[in-house]
Amino acid sequence: MSDSAALPSATTLADAPAPVFDRGYRYRHALESILVPALALVLAAAGFALFLICLGQSPLDFVDLVWRGAFGSAFSIQNTLLKASPLLLTALCVALPAQLGLVIIGGEGAVVLGGLAAAAIAPPLAGIPPLLLQVLMMIAGMSAGAVWIGFAGWLRAKRGINETISSLLLAYIAIALFNHIVEGPLRDPASLNKPSTADIGAGNMFGYLPGTDVHPGLIFGIIACIAFYILIFKTSFGFGCRVTGGSLRAAQLQGLPVTRLIIIACALGGACAGLAGMVEVAAVQGRANASLAAGYGYAGILIAFLARQNPLAIIPMAVVLGGLTASGGLIQRRMDLPDATVLVLQGMIFVAILASETFYGRFAWFQPRRAP
Amino acid sequence: MTSAAFGTVLFAMLAGALRVSTPFLFVSLGECLTEKSGRINLGNEGALVLGAMAAYAISYETGNPWAGLLAAAGVGACLGLLHAALCSLTKVSDIAMGIAIMLAGTGTAFFFGKPYIQPSAPQLPTIPFGFWSSSAQIRSALDVSPLFFLGVIVGIAMAWGFRNTRLGLTIRIVGDSADSARAMGLRINLIRLGATAVGSALAGIGGAFLSLVYPGSWNEQLSSGQGLIAVALVVFARWNPLYCIGAALLFGAAGALGPSLQSVGISKGYYLFNAAPYVLTLVLMILSVRPGRSLKGAPGELSIVR
Known about the structure:
The structure holds 2 protein chains of 2 kinds.
Chain A: H1 25-54, H2 59-71, H3 74-98, H4 107-121, H5 130-159, H6 163-183, H7 217-234, H8 236-246, H9 248-253, H10 258-285, H11 296-306, H12 311-326, H13 328-335, H14 341-356
Helix pairs in contact in A: 1-14, 2-3, 2-12, 2-13, 3-7, 3-10, 3-11, 3-12, 4-5, 4-6, 4-10, 4-11, 5-6, 5-10, 7-8, 7-12, 8-10, 11-12
Chain B: H1 3-36, H2 44-62, H3 65-87, H4 94-113, E1 127-128, H5 136-141, E2 143-144, H6 146-164, H7 166-176, H8 178-183, H9 188-212, H10 226-236, H11 241-263, H12 270-274, H13 276-288
Antiparallel strand pairs in B: 1-2
Helix pairs in contact in B: 1-6, 1-9, 1-10, 1-11, 2-3, 2-4, 2-9, 3-4, 3-9, 6-7, 6-11, 7-9, 10-13
């Protein structure tokens, strides 16, 4: 299975295409990648139910409230989708470089710089048609993110510096730069308690999708996930990336432009995270301020790992996580539990699903069969 | 800036560095120990926050801050055990698991910590090194927590232990080459389990410093990411516990620069100084790493240096 190329150790000979005579392998393989996380989810849910029972609360009430808070009404579904939309893009910032075996954990830096770049170009360009301005803001945000994560890729490819550390360092540098600029040169004097850049203007903000309260960021996220799925699994560029992720040496021997692939994949991922920051500015905040560093970058790492670095699988994972986040308020009001209850559940789910990674390939029934 | 103001800033920075650096010191020593055994634990951020909460809650309930300190080390060790046990399964990524543990730890801390945001718990005592001075400013600045000295002692002991004890050598072998360790019949997973648990316990003590010494209260914004920053700090210190002490003081001083500049009326621009340690770490890596050659002192089994 090629999408497991994300983990350097996961690509082995067992991932080779199934022999022709084993027609059932495709389906058993698909079943494995559904059953394993499902089992982990059940275990996490059981653990959390035990936790609730110890606190004297009913797990059934909790499930009911999560369902109602996340998917029960048109309002809550929209809320869930809004919570999911930045995560789609920040997860891609992890999943794309992961195809080459890279672990980028600095998406947060690309988010804040993307948002800042978008917010910075809006006031000087005030007066041009909103649609044009929005496109320019998107370009600015994506470029900022692309440069930032692309730099981590460049350091990896050219200097051999580990991308995990460098992207984390770059994220902290980005946040410091962001704070400096938002509280210094670009600060709107009117923003007293919460330093912000100047307002981009209500007319320049994204509208809502017709008939909903959902902003177009969700559409960008879904389009990006589908486009990158096609890029990775249906194009020669993606094939080159996956070969590199499987074995750097093999890719070099084949003459693949490994350096270029690494930098491009990192830059594309960074562009996605930068776009997430831009959407946060253009659809939610209307300006760049500390709300941009809300941890979307870190949540994205987990979504990408939960989706096993498959861009299409990112969509359901982000929706599930968005739904859990969206139902936090309802649980707080109805069950008299702290809103952090959802964080406890999220933590349990993450730990269980990541640990379940170990079960892939352990059961012979799911494996390709040899000729009799 | 007048020389008097400059002196004030310098002094406030020194005092701030002593305070701000202590959590960095403990988390980085914990991270250093874990990484020396060949595994990275980003979950130390969770151990720090959960440790801060547990220390505050136990100190409030029992009236004894030292019991709180023990509790912090205990919950830290539990998180470390969980991380190490799950990472010893094949195919489980220690980086992703660390972030999951971080979220689980902070979530649990926020959940159980809600009732303790308001009440004030007994604090750990400090040693008044400023007794000779009549200036209240100097006296409060030189109130140094015994935890700072404990951290320095732990750092020195670790540096000595890595060189001179059987246990220290064992940890380094496991961290440098799992194959050699296996050939020697060492139980790799058990050793990593121990190193990670002790490392997270140290991170928990760092959290206890936050809630019981400085700033000395419990709230959900208590940690400013010291647990994650520790990863950068350990790289900066090149996996040497003695350098960790210096690096923690440097990172602490950079963090203390903002508030001390504010005390003399400068409120802009210090964010760039906050970023200085990260820029320094990055520059250090750019200068010393070449393709095919890792950082000096880096454990060979560590996923983040390959």
